[in-house]
Design goal:
Order of helices and strands: HHHHHHHEEH
Strand order of the largest sheet: 1-2
Shape: flat
Number of domains: 1
Helix content: 55-70%
Largest sheet: 2 strands, antiparallel
Structural class: mainly alpha
Number of strands: 2
Length: about 220
């Protein structure tokens, strides 16, 4: 192992150590900021791998990135307090009832023709798995078509960009199921077993709200 490789490994280890120690040293505001920087950093790494190393200008990276995020967000939406207050025994996204036909049932399976797709997302582990599997499946299908048909150059960029715009239109037009251009809001907290992430940020936000209302 050369000195250059040792220095590179040391930098990586120091970076991961700082990230792991961040919750012990920083307040909730900066933890939230760093989390966002890391998430968008992963998107940047994906673009660098595709364009910088493979030489493929993929303008549809947001499709894979967004599909994975949406899968987990569906589980977090069902874990939010508002989804548990819609008059049903099980969580129901509030926007589905807002967009439902008059007299429609309030059960998640039957609100509209596609609401049953949300049923497995009542379990957060399913949202995590789908957040990994769906982007991989989409990328695999696109990759097989592109490489088998020997598509290259600007045509790859056009195809991937067109796919992003197509999926965007589908999501917006499916507002009763996806909440359209509003996206998924008022998400619950992500949990790993009994560990609730962002709990400190939630408590801090509640305290700040309490102070502002009292002051």
């Amino acid at each position: 192992m050369t000195d250059k490789q040792r220095i590179r490994i040391a930098i990586y280890l120091a970076f991961f150590a700082l990230i792991m120690c961040a919750p012990l040293l920083l307040d909730p505001f900066w933890l939230n900021r760093i989390a966002k920087y890391l998430v968008f950093g992963m998107l940047g790494v994906a673009v660098a791998l595709s364009w910088g190393y493979a030489g493929v200008l993929n303008l549809g990276q947001g499709l894979f990135f967004g599909a994975g995020a949406y899968m987990l967000a569906m589980s977090l939406k069902l874990a939010s307090p508002t989804s548990l207050q819609q008059g049903s025994d099980k969580p129901v996204p509030d926007f589905m009832l807002w967009n439902a036909e008059p007299g429609a049932p309030t059960e998640l399976c039957c609100i509209n023709k596609a609401s049953f797709l949300w049923l497995p997302f009542q379990h957060q582990w399913f949202g995590i798995v789908m957040g990994i599997v769906l982007p991989v499946v989409i990328a695999t299908v696109i990759g097989i078509i592109v490489f088998r048909k020997r598509i290259s150059g600007v045509f790859v960029s056009i195809i991937t960009l067109a796919l992003v715009l197509l999926v965007r239109l589908l999501v917006i037009d499916s507002q009763p199921v996806t909440n359209g251009f509003n996206g998924l809001t008022d998400l619950g907290w992500f949990k790993i077993g009994e560990l609730e992430l962002d709990h400190a940020a939630a408590c801090s936000a509640r305290r700040a709200t309490s102070r502002s209302s009292n002051g």
